[in-house]
Amino acid sequence: MTDDAYAKGIEIREQMFGPEHAQAKVDRATDFTREFEELVTRYCFGEIWGREQIPRAQRSMLTIAMLVALGRPQEIQVHVRGAIANGVTKEQIREVMLHAAVYCGIPAAVDGFRQATVVLDELGL
Questions:
Q1: pTM reported for the whole predicted model
Q2: Do 86 and 31 share a structural domain?
Q3: What residues make up the domain containing 9?
């Protein structure tokens, strides 16, 4: 994989999640998961996260809200880490969770707060 979108995706993944979630993650992929990791890198991060029309901090907040709505706790944790790396504050993450409570439901927001708290505590925030 050497195309521009893929390279940009690796760069964005590394900036948001560190080297262990960028090229190293793709390199560790199995024959079964490799194509999926390449797809995520190229399209999710290179093509979408790489667009300049919405700043990364806003993309992070949108993503967290959508993950709360979908009930994806592990991904909430991953993207709270990425949000912090993208300059989102603890207070902004709280506001996203409060907003999600109204539109996604209290149980979804309870889980979102729970998952965000795990990461924020680990980061000393």
A1: 0.92
A2: no
A3: 4-49
